[in-house]
């Protein structure tokens, strides 16, 4: 009997599609990247999607929040928007929508019930904490980031995808985290003030938000979901790091891993 996944079975086979249906995925961050990821997971037929984000719909994020219709009021939790979107696509998918950060007790508890984590957050401080949690629990993490730099004579845009497993390493040994950003994100108010004094620029004087365009997020999210498919269905081995350079029209595969990583050493013995 035919069903909605017949064309996918031509790629993954019955076994691969069954794995997708049995898969429990956490999407950490429901913004521009996380919304796209959630959309694609729903169309793939993933059996359970846990969505974690404390943010809400605002005028400034309507340009990239997939699933936000004109009828949605500002202040609506992003996780509620995405939960409704999944239900509209496939009502048989179990959705757990948690309007909390993953660091919260409720968020950490929810991550105990998943098989894979999709990291779609801003800020390297939060990325480091999620990286540590996934290493400790032996959970595969697929972390995504998009960025844009507008210069006087050019615009640079793109992003990256990192796969965190025992085989590929983690965000630290793949050297993708900015240590100064981590200090600013995780430091106390006094520590941030000291950092500002050293660099001579107050944080509030810097542009808090850069450009964000939906198509750039879509490319990075699709690259991340494709690595999830590689991890789960076995169509190939997942790549440890992909660098998307939209201004050049290329995606590069990067292999760069330092040895003796503290965070990789946190993995349970069974996952090493």
Could you explain the architecture of this structure?
- The chain has helices at 6-22, 32-44, 78-89, 105-110, 124-137, 179-186, 189-199, 214-233; strands at residues 24-28, 48-52, 94-98, 116-119, 141-150, 155-164, 241-245, 250-253.
- It is an alpha/beta fold and 272 residues long.
- The longest helix has 20 residues, at 214-233.
- The model is unreliable at 201-208 (pLDDT under 50).
- It has one domain (6-179, 211-255): Rossmann fold (3-Layer(aba) Sandwich).
- The protein has an 8-stranded mixed sheet with strand order 3-2-1-4-5-6-7-8, with helices on both faces.
- The protein contains 8 helices and 8 strands; from the N terminus they run H-E-H-E-H-E-H-E-H-E-E-H-H-H-E-E.
- Helix 2 (32-44) packs parallel to helix 3 (78-89), helix 2 (32-44) packs across helix 8 and helix 5 (124-137) packs across helix 6.
- Strand 7 (241-245) and strand 8 form a beta hairpin.
In a few lines, what is going on in this structure?
This protein is an alpha/beta fold.
């Amino acid at each position: 009997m035919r069903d909605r996944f017949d064309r996918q079975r031509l790629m993954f086979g019955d076994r691969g599609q069954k794995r997708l249906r049995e898969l429990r995925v956490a999407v950490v961050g429901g913004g521009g990247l996380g919304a796209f990821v959630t959309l694609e997971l729903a169309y793939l037929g993933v059996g359970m999607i846990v969505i974690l984000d404390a943010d809400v719909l605002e005028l400034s994020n309507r340009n990239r929040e997939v699933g936000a219709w004109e009828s949605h009021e500002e202040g609506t939790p992003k996780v509620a928007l995405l939960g409704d979107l999944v239900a509209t696509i496939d009502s048989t998918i179990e959705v757990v929508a948690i309007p909390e950060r993953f660091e919260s007790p409720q968020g950490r508890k929810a991550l105990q019930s998943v098989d894979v984590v999709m990291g779609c957050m801003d800020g390297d401080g939060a990325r480091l904490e999620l990286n540590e949690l996934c290493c400790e629990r032996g959970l595969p993490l697929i972390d995504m980031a998009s960025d844009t730099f507008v210069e006087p004579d050019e615009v640079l845009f793109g992003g990256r995808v990192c796969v965190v497993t025992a085989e590929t390493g983690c965000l630290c040994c793949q050297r993708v985290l900015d240590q100064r950003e981590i200090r600013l994100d995780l430091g106390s108010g006094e520590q941030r003030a000291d950092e500002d004094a050293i660099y001579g620029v107050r944080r509030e004087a810097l542009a808090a938000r850069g450009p964000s365009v939906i198509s750039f997020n879509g490319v990075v999210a699709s690259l991340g979901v494709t690595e999830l498919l590689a991890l789960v269905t076995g169509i190939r081995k997942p790549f440890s790091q992909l660098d998307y350079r939209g201004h050049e029209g290329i995606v590069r595969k990067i292999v760069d891993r330092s040895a003796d990583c503290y965070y990789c050493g946190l993995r349970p013995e069974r996952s090493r």
